[in-house]
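During the second half of the funding period, the structural biology subgroup turned its attention to how the target accommodates small molecules. The most pressing case was zinc ion, which had performed well in the primary screen but for which no bound structure existed. We therefore specified the complex as follows and requested a full 3D prediction, including the ligand pose.
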Amino acid sequence: MQAGKTELLYLRDSYLSEFEARVVEAGENYVVLDRTAFHPRGGGLVSDTGVLNLGAETFQVIGAEMSEEGVRHILDKMGPRTGDTVEGRLDWDRRYRLMRMHTALHVLVAVVNARTGALITGNQVETEASRVDFSLEKFDRALIESCVAEANQRLAEGHEVKIRFIEREEALKTPGLVKLAAKAPPDAPILRIVEIGDIDAQLDGGPHVKNTSEVGQIVLRKIENKGKSNRRLYFTLNP
Ligand SMILES: [Zn+2]
């Protein structure tokens, strides 16, 4: 799948950490590539970091963001020019941790939603701790702890995480996906659906692990009240 001039390699393969690409645009502090494994900031996830190698020279990718022209790779210094072939490499430890956090978030949200009907109103997936906001008036610590325990049990069961691409028309005809398809932007003919066993199915553009057993355990950090019916919880992972 394509965004502007960039083919988004991470949509098909979350485990791709090295790739070759051509520079299609060089800005003041960024380059746009014709293909990338760098996941740009968005969808509640912080961006990947890593390096671009051009010959013997190395450029740090300090962030990546989506733009109309494609994915901008923000560099620590400029050098690559339009037409250059570069070798990209993700900071894999960071990315893999984000993948585990992201899959953990989906499972936790699914459990909370099934148990309480609470809807997610925002989230931020980071390496150290992630946070998620739920809209629910009665949501006490004991209930949240019990949801975390159930989410951890589901994670440990080792459910496969499947990434599927499906045409909107087909999704609209498939029971269970109709709701998802209806939520997709009207100009998206192909939908990316991430299914975690029978636990969760979402339209999603971010990287995930292949199996929930890779996640480890969710550790509840803190709960905050953000307004009358908004509960924010912070979690991290063990290990
Ligand atoms: Zn997601």
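Two results from this model are relevant to the next phase. Residues 92-116 form the longest helix (25 residues). Residues 43, 102, 106, 204, 206 surround zinc ion (CB under 6 Å).
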